[in-house]
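G., the chain you wanted modeled:
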Amino acid sequence: MQLDLFSQGNSQAQWVSITNGEYLFVPDFFNVEEANRHFKTLLNDVEWKQESMSMYGKVIPFPRLTAWYGDNDKPYSFSGIILSPIQWNEALLEIKAKIEVEAKTIFNSVLLNRYRNGNDSISWHTDSEKELGLNPIIASVNFGATRKFQLRHKESKEKIELKLGHGSLLIMGGELQHYWQHQVPKTKKAVNERINLTYRVIK
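Predicted structure as tokens:
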């Protein structure tokens, strides 16, 4: 269920309107105590997996660990793999309840990515799979190290860069997933682990 994007949320942050989309960025949505607690819990309690995909006739491991949680009947497919959801745990439900107030959306699934160091990354892509429907709302929550998050318009090649830090929330809406790619690039800088959660609505 997706609600009015422009209703007042809890934070003072405002939706930013861009070509073919909009986003809301709240750098300190979770306070330090909350962020520390969630990071430690997710690090230890999530069922992390090393997924792989086929590319040019070779099986290549994802440069990060992943996990898929959600309602039992909502599988998700991307990069040639199909993920069956693990049952929600308490931490994921607590985070979900808080961000749903801001996103004005009831999420039924979450994809988790664990970036162990600067070599872990995710390349340019869109979250526009058919299971997500038209103009999906994606809420991205971040705990741990700060990493660059880059957006690139598929036609104009316009770029936007945000630094997603410990306890931050980024909500992407409107047509954004259909017109903009995004990535978390590798970095040669020494960085600690980062956990990213992207809450979604699977149709």
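The domain at 16-200 is CATH 2.60.120.590 (Jelly Rolls).

Shout if anything looks off.
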